[in-house]
Amino acid sequence: MAEPQPASGGLTDEAALSCCSDPDPSTKDFLLQQTMLRIKDPKKSLDFYTRILGMTLLQKLDFPTMKFSLYFLAYEDKNDIPKDKDEKVAWVFSRKATLELTHNWGTEDDETQSYHSGNSDPRGFGHIGIAVPDVHGACKRFEELGVRFVKKPNDEGCLIGSYTAARTRAERPMINDYHLFYKMSNSHPLRPFTAVGEIDHVHILSEHIGALLIGEEYGDVTFVVEKKRFPAHRVILAARCQYFRALLYGGMRESQPEAEIPLQDTTAEAFTMLLKYIYTGRATLTDEKEEVLLDFLSLAHKYGFPELEDSTSEYLCTILNIQNVCMTFDVASLYSLPKLTCMCCMFMDRNAQEVLSSEGFLSLSKTALLNIVLRDSFAAPEKDIFLALLNWCKHNSNENHAEIMQAVRLPLMSLTELLNVVRPSGLLSPDAILDAIKVRSESRDMDLNYRGMLIPEENIATMKYGAQVVKGELKSALLDGDTQNYDLDHGFSRHPIDDDCRSGIEIKLGQPSIINHIRILLWDRDSRSYSYFIEVSMDELDWIRVIDHSQYLCRSWQKLYFPARVCRYIRIVGTHNTVNKIFHIVAFECMFTNKTFTLEKGLIVPMENVATIADCASVIEGVSRSRNALLNGDTKNYDWDSGYTCHQLGSGAIVVQLAQPYMIGSIRLLLWDCDDRSYSYYVEVSTNQQQWTMVADRTKVSCKSWQSVTFERRPASFIRIVGTHNTANEVFHCVHFECPEQQSAQKDCSDEPGTGGASAAGQQLDPHALQAPSSSSLPSSPGSNSRSPNRQHQ
């Protein structure tokens, strides 16, 4: 029977496929970066996209001169957002499929302002942004394909370094703008849009001043570069550059009228580009050779053009390859350009063996050479590094070869390599070779100074990077990235818990890698807790324990940090399950992070509140009308009926379980304060719910509202708050809990009662079973006669 055909005007499956083409190789690095929507009121929009749709606000960019703001949102973990401003911008623009909300200031108060659906003229309501490695190359390709351009990179009202292409009006889709952005293009400001009441003819000014350079008119100074003469104008050079101001108006020989100034250490091509930039503010980089671009970069540095230096560096980052990365790194190191240096290092780390065999490697300066091979992340086989350094020494005979050879990590080489490759070279003494053999034979394998791949802020325990689960039951579930679809029967890996800890779940990484951060999701569909430890190894024989939570109770997501280690194998061994003798893991991730962290006794010393729902904390004892009323951070919306967690005096307590053990030295509480009552209480902490240590005793103190509790820092997985007195009734009420105390969030709340609510995973009971504070239990409902905060309690 034939398949049903689509409605009139539609395409059959075959017709649809016939309209599609295989991607051109030049588009392999294209990235669907953003969809832009114009919004009227950011308050309503941000609330909708974060609270309703669950997105995270990644960054807000303001443009006061143009009176608009950009909000970038995506489904990302807020803890992954870099703190550094420049790193944050680069990170945001490297995300896939972000949402950009554009708000023109004042529209929220303009009743006449509205945006249509995008289906009618004069314009739609947004655009789709696609990040490309080379915007000019993409531009050229589109021209060759006959695509009609609405805006080009240097047009007014267009993003600098960006490009807009649209189809013809007859083919215009619902959202008809496609913006192409340089990857990592984070330093270019937006060019202002011309308002009706303003005149902006900067491009005309640039063209007219640039014409002076082309026409050689009114020139009063001449530069000579490689025997080529360059007439110029003193006043323009002095206005644009402090170096030329001092040179041409500083009373030196060059300040004489009609002077000819020879310039050394540069090329005519690079100086031509610099003069064009000085006169017009523009430079075309895409058609120049790498050598010319590096000379151009050196001139920008020498003559003090920091913006030009940044832009040129940024472009060089996009065209790095095996042939040019070494000379680019040499220049970046010489001029202390951190971003370009970092990008070169990352490229060389990921292509170490190819770099070692490239011609550019032989031309590196000694300083640049050592900076490369001394890096732990330059992860080529040590034999290949030795042979490459040997070749470099032959091509640079005037350098100190002994200093170069000290960069070789001889203990990482096999005995055969030491005797048959290193020894015949004559560059290392017999004692050095014997010392390496001794270190290799007497040291633990994990104590050797291994090299490893470094991929910052990216999970490398994936099939993309060649990782696999080699031990454990139900191996396929652990690295599939699914952290939502799991239950009692599927979606996890496991191993039986035995007394000798021989069982475990083992992951083999695709190659030796540098890691300092592991995330695991323990099975958490009920209230069970687990204990475990994690070890790493290079050879599956010598294991180093990097995480030891065998004496602690843990649940749900574990965010683990430790000093950076090079490893190939990672083993997770469960030692306890509060329900049965099986250890279950739903997901595993590992990476190297640049995020700062503090460790004490192997545990994290948190700087931010970890008693939150996002950090998988929960209230395991206590009564609350609304589940999660203690930990959600809401300290405003509470009253007589809701927004707090409580327990009966003399019976029970409020107990918070953190997801994992932390070194805690402070907590903060908000006691219910809608009237003038006071409480007494004490606080204990534990790592296993068996042994408790009192850290605060306020049983003989009248306490109200906000409570700051500090104590000697100690490990804690559980915090127990026990009320001992209430001047109004027989129930202890707590609105908010956090640890450690967030000083920046603390406010003076002693004068006014709160109206807040928080969120906790407290015990949820029948609201009708809860008593009002006017009797002997909880605050009364709003409908009771004793609703007034100033009423007298019974």
Automatic annotation (TrEMBL):
SUPFAM superfamilies: Galactose-binding domain-like (SSF49785), Glyoxalase/Bleomycin resistance protein/Dihydroxybiphenyl dioxygenase (SSF54593), POZ domain (SSF54695)
Gene Ontology terms, MF aspect: lactoylglutathione lyase activity; metal ion binding
Pathway recorded for this protein: Secondary metabolite metabolism; methylglyoxal degradation; (R)-lactate from methylglyoxal: step 1/2
Keyword Zinc on entry: yes
UniProt feature, compositional bias: Low complexity: 773-794
This protein's UniProt keywords: Lyase, Metal-binding, Zinc
Cofactor: Zn(2+)
Catalysed reaction, written as an equation: (R)-S-lactoylglutathione = methylglyoxal + glutathione
Disordered: annotated span: 745-794
Free-text cofactor note: Binds 1 zinc ion per subunit. In the homodimer, two zinc ions are bound between subunits.
Annotated positions binding Zn(2+): Q34, E100, H127
Enzyme Commission numbers on file: 4.4.1.5
Positions of the VOC domain: 31-183
Keyword Lyase annotated: yes
Domain BTB: 219-287
One Gene Ontology term, aspect cellular component: cytoplasm
Family to which this protein belongs: Belongs to the glyoxalase I family.
Role description: Catalyzes the conversion of hemimercaptal, formed from methylglyoxal and glutathione, to S-lactoylglutathione.
Alphabetical list of PANTHER family matching this protein: BTB/POZ DOMAIN-CONTAINING PROTEIN 9, BTB_POZ DOMAIN-CONTAINING PROTEIN 9
Protein's recorded name: Lactoylglutathione lyase
Lineage of source species: Eukaryota, Metazoa, Chordata, Craniata, Vertebrata
